[in-house]
Design goal:
CATH architecture of the largest domain: Alpha-Beta Complex
Mean pLDDT: 95
Oligomer: single chain
Low-confidence stretches: none
Helix content: 40-55%
Strand content: 15-25%
Radius of gyration: 19 Å
Order of helices and strands: EHEHEHEEHHHHHHHEEHEEHEEH
Number of helices: 13
Shape: globular
Distance between the termini: 58 Å
CATH topology of the largest domain: inorganic pyrophosphatase (n-terminal core)
């Protein structure tokens, strides 16, 4: 049993990282027995990175990546691993039963993976889950948790900033765009008992992310804005700051304009747009349905995206969003 390996596969955003922080604080493993598989936020086909040799007799945990995008890889790996726990809040139309597979999947727009993990762990590390919910743009749900758990207003503000910053770090077309590689950030955060300890330590990743976020947000607020009725669209240039801030800026705009759908279009190195879509806060459904109509698109009800949208299709995309929400 001492040779047991644990393979943790997780999204590189706040929800994925802080889900794993909770999980491993509750279920600790030795560092030399843990394999971390992650990437930038949009890198979601992660299970296929684990070959059957590495997976042999291993315990796998998959957090915050779409089951549908990984279903085939999961099916291939199950005969070899000891067990696989899959927890997520994205579309799971391809979900299947298997004796080695345990799932906790809920696709309603008022949950994130970290809250699902927190539910399974009975609030054991709840501050991390609340921060993740804020990072995922679920401010209303996060505030409910703050009240339920008895955090102060000051603690609420700290958890929100921390979650937003960890989430901000996950955006980019490559890990080189990020301030911290997601696996590196996870390992750093595991050294702290709570997000409050991270914030209090001047040498923690918090200060680096705070400074980077402030600088990138200043750039974003000068970006071109297109408004079409119930859609507010922003176009960002092909730059590392734009790739980093795109999703977080989308969350901020969604909170500021709750009746509008938010489109953040970032020019990428392939000469197309990378799209972040936020459903209106007043009607937090349909984002995945819209984005799935376009090649390389997908996501969840409240927030979705398209990895490579041809420049010529931006007008069509905005019109599709507008038509969806004006009914």
């Amino acid at each position: 049993m001492s040779n047991q390996m644990y393979i943790d596969i997780f999204n590189g955003d706040a929800d994925g990282i802080l889900s794993l922080v909770q999980w491993r604080k509750a279920n600790p493993v030795a560092k030399d027995k843990q394999v971390l598989v992650t990437g930038v936020k949009r890198d979601i086909s992660l299970v296929k990175q684990v070959d059957t040799k590495i997976a042999q007799d291993a315990v796998l945990t998959v957090l915050d990546v779409s089951f549908d995008k990984n279903a085939e890889a999961v099916e291939q790996i199950l005969p070899f691993c000891e067990s696989l726990f899959y927890c997520d809040h994205h579309k799971a139309d391809k979900l299947f039963d298997h004796p080695k597979l345990t799932t906790k999947i809920d696709t309603v727009p008022t949950v994130c993976t970290a809250l699902l993990v927190n539910d399974r762990l009975d609030d054991a590390y709840a501050s991390w889950a609340v921060a993740a919910a804020f990072g995922d743009g679920l401010d209303g749900v996060a505030n409910e948790q703050v009240n339920r758990l008895g955090f102060s207003e000051a603690q609420r503000d700290q958890l929100k900033e921390f979650g937003v910053l960890v989430n901000y770090n996950g955006y980019g077309s490559a890990v080189s765009d990020l301030h911290f590689a997601p696996d590196e950030l996870y390992l750093k955060l595991m050294n702290y008992a709570s997000p409050f300890e991270v914030i209090d330590d001047a040498s923690s990743p918090f200060a680096t992310l705070q400074a980077g976020y402030k600088n990138d947000m200043q750039h974003a607020q000068n970006a071109e804005v297109i408004e079409q009725g119930q859609v507010r669209a922003v176009i960002l240039e092909d730059a590392d700051w734009a790739r980093r801030i795109s999703g977080t800026y989308g969350n901020q705009l969604a909170a500021q304009h709750p009746e509008q759908a938010i489109v953040v279009a970032t020019i990428n190195d392939k000469g197309s747009y990378t799209i972040s879509l936020r459903a209106p806060k007043s009607n937090p459904f349909g984002a995945s349905t819209i984005c799935s109509q376009f090649a390389t698109g997908g996501g969840r009800e409240g927030a979705a995206g398209v990895n490579e949208l041809p420049i010529t299709e931006l007008g069509k995309f905005i019109k599709t969003v507008q038509n969806h929400y004006q009914a």
